[in-house]
Amino acid sequence: MKRRLFLASAGIGLSTAVAGCTSQAPLSASSESDLEAGSNTSKTIENETDQKLEQTRIEVGDTTERTIGTGSLEERGLRTAHHVVFGNPTEATHHGTVTISTASETVFEESVVLEANASIVASLTDLGTYTVRVTVPELDATEVVTLDAHQFTCNVTKTTVNVQEDGALGSTSISTRMACPGVVSETAPSDEVMSHTLGDEPVPADTGQFTHTFMLRNPSDETWTARMLVEADSTAQFDGLYAVEPESTVLLTLTESSTYTLSVDVLETEMTASEQITPENFDCNQSSTRVEIDSEGELIMNTLSTLMACGTETNSTDESS
């Protein structure tokens, strides 16, 4: 969302009618100065009036809620929205502005008048990295908080910026502490392999049970933030968020035969790729889905399966009379 620009203008014309004719009286230097000052005053008044009209007043003890984004966290994965709160737990009324930005744009901005114990909550519904800026001009106070994508988990997480009794601004972050199975947030270090197993641990090949691997490689010189999703029957089984450093690899091993949708998203470029695999990919194969991130943040994805002899034997008995 881009900031609105308020423009005001005032025009004054002086004319004198004489004997049916209209003439323009020349303006003296002092008159021009007075007109310019009057015009500037008019613009200032109109701007201040517009800005006051733009402010949202939140009454004593009330909370106003805003939803920011497309709601993609509700549609896919195991992570939930992050809530940003600007609160006034004091007994005085305060004016302030909340601005939330990504690296490329301002996604939210609102000026509010918070009466005693009032607050505004903005829920961020898309995974990403955000900068939150809260300013209270009358207190000459500004608080800036950076929200990293790894702070989005399955828990209810909230970052609060409050007006304090001493006139300063302070911030805190809290979340519930329930377990988040299948939610992983890690860094894949350069030249290393991060491994996870989904399902039971891999079993020896002679049991007839086979696996499928889901591999993400970053051969570029850039570090990318990538999200790897594993879904079965439209339900997320795994939601991994990785800072993928140069020449690093993330390897997921799926040990339970089923139909899966495997997806990778690159947060910085908003590129996405997905592939579906079926039980056939677990049937007597060396099978893998491989994804690479190039230097532009583009994705190359393909699934490879090598057919192998299953090694089954059929026993038969010959009967003769």
How do the helices and strands line up, and which of them pair or pack?
Elements: E1 16-18, E2 21-23, H1 29-54, E3 56-58, E4 63-68, H2 72-75, E5 82-88, E6 94-101, E7 106-114, E8 118-124, E9 130-136, E10 141-147, E11 157-163, E12 169-175, E13 183-188, E14 193-198, E15 212-218, E16 224-232, E17 235-244, E18 248-254, E19 260-266, E20 271-277, E21 285-293, E22 299-307
Describe this structure in words.
This protein is mainly beta and 321 residues long. The protein has two domains: 57-175, Immunoglobulin-like; 183-306, Sandwich (Immunoglobulin-like). Helix content is 9%, strand content 47%. The protein contains two helices and 22 strands. It has helices at residues 29-54, 72-75, and strands spanning 16-18, 21-23, 56-58, 63-68, 82-88, 94-101, 106-114, 118-124, 130-136, 141-147, 157-163, 169-175, 183-188, 193-198, 212-218, 224-232, 235-244, 248-254, 260-266, 271-277, 285-293, 299-307. A five-stranded mixed β-sheet has the order 3-7-6-9-10. Strand 16 and strand 17 form a beta hairpin. The longest helix is centred in the first third of the chain and has 26 residues, at 29-54. It is elongated.
Low-confidence stretches: 1-33, 41-53, 312-321
Number of domains: 2
Shape estimate: elongated
Helix content range: under 10%
Largest sheet: 5 strands, mixed
Q: What quaternary form is this? A: single chain
Structural class: mainly beta
Average pLDDT taken over every residue: 83
Instruction: Report the span from N to C terminus.
Output: 90 Å
User: Which strand-content bin applies to the residues?
Assistant: over 45%
Number of strands: 22
Q: Specify the CATH homologous superfamily of the largest domain.
A: Immunoglobulins
Annotation field: number of helices: 2
* Sequence of secondary-structure elements: EEHEEHEEEEEEEEEEEEEEEEEE
Radius of gyration: 31 Å
Q: Which CATH architecture of the largest domain?
A: Sandwich
CATH topology of the largest domain: Immunoglobulin-like
Identify the strand order in the major beta sheet.
3-7-6-9-10
Q: CATH top level of the largest domain?
A: Mainly Beta
